[in-house]
Amino acid sequence: MSCIFAFLGQAGNQIGHEFMKLLNGEKTARKSKGFFDTYFNTASSKAHVVMVDAEPKVIKASLDDERQSKLSLYDPRNVVYSESGCGNNWALGYNFKGKVKNLTSNISLTESNTLVDETMERIRREVESCDVVQAIFVFHSMGGGTGSGLGSRVVEEIRIKYPSYYIFTISIAPFQHGETPLQHYNCLLTLNHIQQYADGVFLFVNDDLLRSITKNMKRQNAGHSTLMDVSYSVSDINKYISSSLCGLLLPVYSKETKLYTPFDAFSLVNQVVPMKDVNFVELHTSALLTHNATQFTSWQYIAEDLTRHVPIYDLENSNIKTIYAKAVVRGGLQTSHDVDIIKNVLQKQAFSPVDWTKGRKEEFHTLVSSDEALKSYKLPYSLTVCANRTSFMQLFNRVLTKSYTMMQSRAYINWYQRHGLEITDFEEAICNLQNVVDNYVELI
Fold first, then answer.
1. Residue limits of the Tubulin/FtsZ GTPase domain (predicted)?
2. Pair 199, 298 in one domain
3. 3-class SS of residue 19
4. Distance between CA atoms of 388 and 395, rounded to whole angstroms?
């Protein structure tokens, strides 16, 4: 049951490349035949990856890093790009018509083919190279033009072309005070699209990631007292996202049966997405938060360490509620009580359940344990939590408020109208995203 990955735009390619390096490291460390067939082509050993961007700079940087690291991750035929960019405009990315080039030829491809056409052609090629495909993952950001517009279009086309496959997006929301005045429109239109066409949206908010990473750095460097004292890079954010994905997606190993259980998209959707209209989930991991530790302490300590970095209150000081959550333990449980200990810590300290889940017979948290650790970090243990929570309502409400205010004054609308959008498209997106917020409110 294979998974295919599409890296779109600058952020999508940067995070995707970091993720593939981690995945390849896990594969190399185990040397188990068939262990990573889910993610790699059995014939060529190349990853099931398609790399796309409206500008070549980031893609070429990833490929240069691949060569310098002496890795063999990507099929050059699956790399397509343009050289004109998308101008931070969702509409331009969605309807992109610039000349498209392929890495192997470095010449313009057929004039009639768009970047979307070439992307779907390479996804088709990867699909046909697999025996069975269970899911397609799309890595992209929501603030710029390529990741937001082209990302939305590709997710839509995948749903039309492959209606039976699970679609997951790894979506990055920009900083609240971002680089472009168009980011609120771009986020609005992207959220509207991926919510409709994807089965699950792994949503990472840059502001939350920054708070988590800097808080951890302060703990490791007690001498630093202010945020400005702590240095971080985009690479730190990319590594956190990648390690979270690895913690969730890697196969689970059992010492008792000596078998690996591969990632199961069906189970994940059923465990954390109770209904189609509330399909946004977040990921948290202890893998990077405890990387200075040299020996195992206790699962209670690890769970408590993770929850310190999880927001528990929104901007109105209301408790953030958890609808469903799945925890993945890697490194093996030490005692029969560890499952209850981990669940209790997670539920009491960060992942507070909505009222209608309390006291029901089913387990509130699904917990899966693997007897193998994440070998890339040389840690004997790690804990990853995938949760469907109400924390995203802050982002949704901010995007709705900003977009509606701008739309009322017709600010920048003409920039989108030049590329095929109308005011009704914005009104529809606002209505749909408001329905998502209302659905979350009903659940709590």
1. 36-252
2. yes
3. helix
4. 14
If you average pLDDT over every residue of the chain, what do you get? Answer: 84
271 contacts 368 by C-beta, under 8 angstroms: no
Q: Which structure tokens are listed for 14?
A: 């940067």
Domain, as residue range, for 200: 2-221+231-393
Spatial neighbors of 219 by CB under 8 A, at least 6 apart, are none
Write down the pTM of the prediction: 0.91
Residue 279 gets which letter from DSSP?
-
Q: What is the DSSP letter of 83?
A: S
Query: Could you tell me if 425 and 387 lie in one domain?
Result: no
Total number of domains constituting the chain: 2
Q: What is the CA radius of gyration of the chain?
A: 21
Please indicate, yes or no, if residue 44 is contained in any of the structural domains. yes
Q: Where are the alpha helices (DSSP H) in 39-112?
A: 57-68, 90-94
Specify whether 259 is located in the same domain as 406: no
What is the CATH number for 435?
A: 1.10.287
- 314 and 410 share a domain? no
- 362 and 405 share a domain? no
Between β-strands 382-389 and 322-330, what pairing exists: parallel, antiparallel or unpaired? antiparallel
Q: Report the chain (444 residues): mean pLDDT per 10 consecutive residues.
A: 93 94 83 71 88 92 91 91 84 85 60 80 93 94 91 96 96 86 94 95 90 69 49 79 90 82 89 87 79 62 85 73 88 82 86 65 67 75 89 92 93 92 94 93 82
State the CB neighbour count (10 A cutoff) for residue 335.
10
Q: What is the pLDDT of residues 249-269, one digit of tens each?
A: 988 888 888 888 888 899 999
Distance between CA atoms of residues 285 and 263, nearest Å:
17
403, 281: one domain: no
Q: 47-95: per-residue pLDDT in tens?
A: 999 999 998 999 999 999 999 988 889 999 999 998 877 788 999 999 8
Amino acid at 7: F
User: Distance between CA atoms of 339 and 400, rounded to whole angstroms?
Assistant: 40
Give yes or no: residues 185 and 313 share one domain: yes
150 within domain boundaries: yes
User: Per the domain annotation, does 226 fall within a domain?
Assistant: no
**216 and 175 assigned to the same domain:** yes
